Amino acid sequence: MKLLGIAIALSNLLTIDAFRSPVKRGITQLTFGLEDNVKSHHHSSGPFQTFVEHFSASRSGTDTYLQTQLSEIYSNSSIVVTQDYYFDIVRFAAGSPESVVIRELDEIASIKKIVFVKPMKRREGIGKIAERVVFGGWNVAWEDKEFKVIVATWAETYRQVTQWHIITDHPESAQQFIRSCSDFCSTFSDVVWVFEQGGWRPDRELWEAASWEDVVLDDAFKTSLQSDYRSFYKAEKTYKDLGVPWKRGLIFLGPPGNGKTISLKALMKEVKVPTLYVKSFHSWGGDEMGIRDIFARARAEAPCVLILEDLDSLITDMNRSFFLNEVDGLEDNDGLLLIGTTNHFDRLDPALSSRPSRFDRKYTFPNPSHAQRRDYAIWWKDRLHDNSEIEFPDTLLDEFADKTDKFSFAYMKEAFISTLLTIASGNEKGDLDFRGILLKQVDHLRNELETTEAMSFPMTSFGRDSGGGGGMGDMMAYRQMSMAVGDDSTIYQIPWIN
């Protein structure tokens, strides 16, 4: 009984304004004190008291208890209950094109928590104070319907539960409201859904990361890649008329740092369908459960893009068979564009690298050619054009391209970034020899690259046999179907796909 008194006294502190007047707008409310414990325990007068009293004693089945107690309080109405993850009337009212108005219920004394939301990026400011509702209620006007909505949130085992109760005389309308609200709140046109640690989260930053203007690749290669995924989403009828499953698989391969990831980011920004990005198969139920959840979400969102980065690391001996069974689903995978990336194609399971029905086309992202290295230098020259303190002569374009043979785009970027940081640190001395510093950084990175290569095991070259087997030279039927694009870029296609 002492615990009951403490809990109710604490609730009084949280809601002192709500209980300051015993009568508000014709609704009787009780003012509790420690001496009223027994009386309050036996005489609930509303949803708020029901919620507080429940958590003041040992009790189980919170979801059922709340639903039945609210049914008694609002005995003349129906109670429609949902724990749908996406149901959020506040977000629905704030952003939906439908007519939605919400107002807090006067007869409900809300329990709220004030929290500090730290910004994700420093440039977003110092953060903000936000309000989280533990228990509360609203009047909701939706289209030509009106409801009362009461929400409660509590901890249960390892998770947090949020349960919404819609009080109405028209339960069919409440179900339609749930469908409209959840459908709106589950649709994100400006995020990428990322799967990691066994769950999905929306990532707007990944969606905003890049556009095709930021991607420096051979023009023909870039155009072919763009045409591939763009035409896929326009060709549903063609696939169906030919009796071919409407699904597509692409692999991006090649040494790290040459545009695979940034091309994916540009693709994700452009497509007008949901994008799912998988970092790991791991989940609390193991890889098999993670794979099942990933493909179930992809099928529910289809048509969509499903991206598996570092495919050679994702597939293991333990999950291989289960993964292949999910990929091989024909009608189940309708509308699915599956894109995998790998830095080590020679390590990829042959069931993926040499099976056309799983991945139909392979795009090789090699180290940039001389022309591409010069184009990359031009991109930086244009970017630094407005900086009057940096002299970037045209002759430096060819010098840079000549000295960066075998450099990836990542290595070239590091050369420019290091140069600018060096200049920034020595700016007060007036040392702005951009050309000299850039070429010195290139020499430094050249030594680093050669040292790394000497310490590494021999790697299979892309696009030719190295004598050790594997790699692109052993791609079976693909060897005869290669199409050279640019100096080194290659696209491999299967015979029955144009």
TrEMBL record:
> Pfam families in the record, alphabetically?
AAA
- Keywords of the record: ATP-binding, Nucleotide-binding, Signal
Q: Where does the signal sequence lie?
A: 1-18
The highest taxon in the source lineage is Eukaryota
The cross-references to SMART domains, in alphabetical order and at most eight, read: AAA
SUPFAM superfamilies recorded for this chain? P-loop containing nucleoside triphosphate hydrolases
All copies of the AAA+ ATPase domain together span 246-369
- Report the family membership: Belongs to the AAA ATPase family.
Protein name (record)? AAA+ ATPase domain-containing protein
